[in-house]
Amino acid sequence: QVQLVESGGGLVQTGGSLGLSCAASGSFFNIGVMAWYRQAPGKRREVVAASIGRSTTTYADSVKGRFTISRDNAKNTVHLQMTSLKPEDTGVYYCNVKDIAGREYWGQGTQVTVSS
Length: 116
Fold this sequence. Notes:
mainly beta; seven-stranded mixed β-sheet; 11 strands
């Protein structure tokens, strides 16, 4: 059984910074992709940032230059550093992991609220 445990998040003012962390544990094949998604109230869940393999990262246009995703393959952890936060960054952030067998796992979600 695979478990993703998220930490971080909370309330921050516009322009502030927050960090999110996710640790994967359990039995799974090698992890291929570690990513962060978010879901704002009334909106669909969207990918924010993804770490693919050992060196490729992608970002949603809305967060480029402000968010940084990083991972530790030895520890199966992924971190999302968020800076220059805006009210539109508010939402529930979910950790997502896909292993090389194609199986996908989700964290329980952590709330990020950016006040104006």
